Amino acid sequence: MPHPRPVIVISDAQALGDDGAALALLFASRRFSPVTLVASSGNVWADEAYANLKNLVARFGLRDVTILKGLSPEKNRARLGYFETTHRSDVRFAGALRMAPPKSNPAEDDAAIANLIVAIEGAENPEIILLAPATILSAALAQRPDLSIGRV
User: Fold this and answer.
1) Which pTM value belongs to this model?
2) What does DSSP assign to residue 109?
């Protein structure tokens, strides 16, 4: 078996959704280590995704997975504004953006971005798997365009 590669997964995991299936396959593959999961707003708000990711990791009995909190709704303001004002009939799914947003905390957002930067630096060329909006990755790269990422 080839040497495991570091991976960071950005997920908007619902309790029983497609992200759970994708993560189950990732965990079973054993091709990636260390694994860092980042909660993102998308299907649900980041706080709920964080709780769902913690439950999923516990269900698999994994102890070597890091879970990071994602960004508050305020950092998703552009996407939120689009769904609030669009009259397009082809926009049927807006996930968390159709739910009342929880209160934003800019200090927590700064910490979430800093934690992702530390995770990327510590993983040395990690692969990034996007199962959710990449707002937090975009914010990290805006602050640190020199971050070394193997592949997205």
Assistant:
1) 0.85
2) H
Q: Are 6 and 124 in contact (CB under 8 A)?
A: yes
Contact 116, 68 (CB under 8 A): yes
- Write the DSSP symbol of residue 4: P
Q: Which helix (H) or strand (E) holds 107?
A: helix 106-123
Question: ∠ CA(55), CA(56), CA(62), 5° rounding?
Answer: 100
- Answer for the pair 96, 41: CB distance below 8 angstroms, yes or no: yes
User: How far apart (Å, rounded) are the C-alpha atoms in residues 32 and 120?
Assistant: 14
Convert the pLDDT of each residue in 66-125 to its tens digit: 999 988 766 665 555 555 566 655 555 556 656 666 677 778 888 999 999 999 999 989
Between the alpha carbon of residue 71 and those of residues 52, 53, 101, 142, 148, the distances in Å are 15, 15, 12, 15, 21
Strands 32-39 and 127-130, bridge-based pairing: unpaired
